[in-house]
Structures are given as structure tokens and as C-alpha cells.
Amino acid sequence: MTTETTIPAITLHDGRTIPQLGFGTLSVPPDREPTPDNTAKTAEVVGWALEAGIRHVDTAQMYGNERGVGQAIAKSGIPREELWITSKLGNANHHPADVERSYEETLDKLGLEQLDLFLMHWPLPTLYDGDYVSTWKAMTDLVDDGRLGSAGVSNFHAEHLERIITETGVIPVVNQIEAHPYFANTSAIEATRSHGIAVEAWSPLGQGTVLEEPAITEIAAAKGKTVAQVTLRWHIQHDHIVFPKSMHRERIQENLAIFDFALSPDEMTAIDALDRGEEGRVGPNPETFAWVPSAETPNPR
Ligand code: NAD
Q1: Is the pLDDT of residue 1 over 70?
Q2: Sheet containing 148-154: order of strands
Q3: Of all protein residues, whose CA lies closest to atom 37 belonging to ligand 1?
């Protein structure tokens, strides 16, 4: 049993350290519209996460909420060096000139001089003539220019990783991919780790789908913890970086209270056994996902 109560840090291959637990902001608020009301709501909710002790926030150009995240950061008064802020390149911005332009827009919206981590949100292998390599090169140029802390990718499979690494020689620091008890995503995780890249697990609670799972409920009852806490603890013990999302203050605090207990090897194995393979996905498959936001379709579904 561990007595750890602070959030561990993971050292990335470029030597920078990221808090292993953060706060996810997809659908904070639900409709991705940067209206004044929505921006105020995002600022309030992200403010709760920062007040609770979270120092790592995961946002994206396509979430439409970077201004609200920025307002929460400014209001918190937390020194910049104590925060880890990630955003992601939107699917409409893959052309190299758009990488740089949209990065500047992201900084402006967040009110920051530099991001800690900028991710290519999706590889989009069926768009842009299949060229995600020059997109990746443009992102790594931001690091070389000293304007970005670290560059990474999201939703990359083995072949996508191989290609950008072979063609540019630059290895992403993280790969942010869907992973949770119903979708272990083993092949993507193995490919990611084979390059020394850290794994960030998105939708760590399967967007809430795992919360009724009897096998985890049983473990949670035995531990005196909630199903969400046991599931997040399973990720932590698998060395995943996670950032659960919630719009409820008490759940945000609950999701942070996962460092005062540990799962046994048998409990870990019981949760590992829930993997449903491809059927367990809650999000799109990166091989075919090709949605680009527009005024008509601001949401992927
Ligand atoms: P999640 O797995 O974090 O689940 C969120 C849902 O679980 C919430 O809507 C809430 O209903 C429920 N929940 C959270 N805490 C709870 C608790 N303690 N008790 C009961 N219910 C609780 O789903 P997510 O938001 O999709 O994923 C987390 C983050 O991952 C996102 O916010 C985003 O930052 C990131 N993400 C990235 C990608 C990508 O393509 N890179 C895709 C999806 C999500």
C-alpha cells in the first residue's frame, strides 16, 4: 500500500517532466462554441481543477475553449512554471503555414508565451495527400525556435509513428491515444513505448462507460474507493498519463484522490481482462477519422 499523496511526475525523453494526472477539457462546455457564457463556464470549471491542486490541463484548438482555460490560468495566480498546459493542432490546420499561425492564435487565446506541449491531434492519413510528415516538421520547428516546450502526437498508430520518425529524425515526447479498461489499445501502446514515447490515455473512464462495470465495482467496494478512482489508479499503475474530465467540482476532487491506495497485481489483472479489443473503442479510429471542423459541423458527431 502506498502512502503517496502528491501527483507523480513522468520524465519525458527530452528531459522535461509532466504531472501524471491532469484535467481534460473536451466538452467543457459541451458544444465547443466559444460564446461568452461558455468561456465563463470553462474558466469556472478549470478554476475548480486548479483549486483542487491539479497543475496539468489538456485542451485543444478544436475544443473551442482555449480562452476559458486561459482565463482560469490567469485568475489562479499560480506561477507559470508550476503549470503544464497542453493544446492540440486542429484538423483544419495541418498545412505548415497554418501550424505556425494557429499556434500563435492558441497562445493568444490562452494568454501564454509558450505551451508546454503541442500535439498533432489526429494523423488524418486520408487527408492532405496523406502528408502528416510536413505537419510534424512544422511543429518540431516551433521547439527548435524556442517557442514551444515539447512536441507530441495524438492518435498515432505504429506506421504513423515510424513514418514521422524515419522521415524527420524527431521522436514525439508523447502519443495521446484512447485507452481504458474496455479498450487496452495494446498495439498502439507497444508501438509508442518501443520508441521511448510516453503514453497519454484519453477517455480514461471510457467517457463514463466503465463506471457501471461490475468487476471494477467489486474492487472499488473492497478498497472503499469509487469506480472512477479505481479505474484512474489502474491507469497510473500502468504508467499512463491521464486527465479525466468532469464538470462537477466534487468529482474533480474525487478523481484526484487516487494516490493513497494501490491495486494488487490480481486486481490489475482483473481489470486488464475487461479489454474488448476494437469493440471497446468509444472514439473514432485514427485510420479513417477525417472530420475537419467547419461552421456547419463544429462537432464530429
Ligand atoms: P473521460 O473518460 O474522462 O470521461 C468523462 C466522463 O466521465 C464525464 O463526462 C463524466 O460524465 C464522467 N465522470 C468523470 N469523473 C467522474 C466521477 N468521479 N464519477 C462519475 N462520473 C465521472 O472522457 P473524456 O473527456 O473523453 O477524456 C478525458 C480527456 O481526454 C478529454 O477531456 C480530453 O482532454 C482528452 N481527449 C483527447 C482526445 C484525442 O483525440 N486526443 C479524444 C478524447 C478525449
Answers
A1: no
A2: 23-24, 56-58, 84-89, 115-120, 148-154, 174-178, 198-202, 241-242
A3: 202
Cβ(175)–Cβ(154) below 8 Å: yes
Ligand 1 centre and the CA of 149: distance in Å? 25
Reported as a single tens digit per residue, the pLDDT across 147-184 is 999 999 999 999 999 999 999 999 999 999 999 999 99
Judged against a pLDDT cut of 80, whether residue 259 lies above it is answered with yes
pLDDT for 260: 96
pLDDT at 301 (0 to 100) = 55
Burial class, 31, CB count within 10 angstroms (exposed 0-12 / middle 13-18 / buried 19+): exposed
For ligand 1, mutation pick of 121, 245, 258 (most atoms within 8 Å of CB): 245
Nearest to 20 by CA among 276, 286, 201, 282: 201
Q: Which atom of ligand 1 is nearest to the CA of 119?
A: 41
Q: Is the CB of 25 under 6 A from ligand 1?
A: yes
Choose among 24, 202, 190: nearest CA to 122: 202
Q: 44 C-alpha vs ligand 1 centroid, how far in Å?
A: 17
Whether the pLDDT of residue 3 is over 50: the answer is no
Cβ–Cβ < 8 Å for 139, 172: no
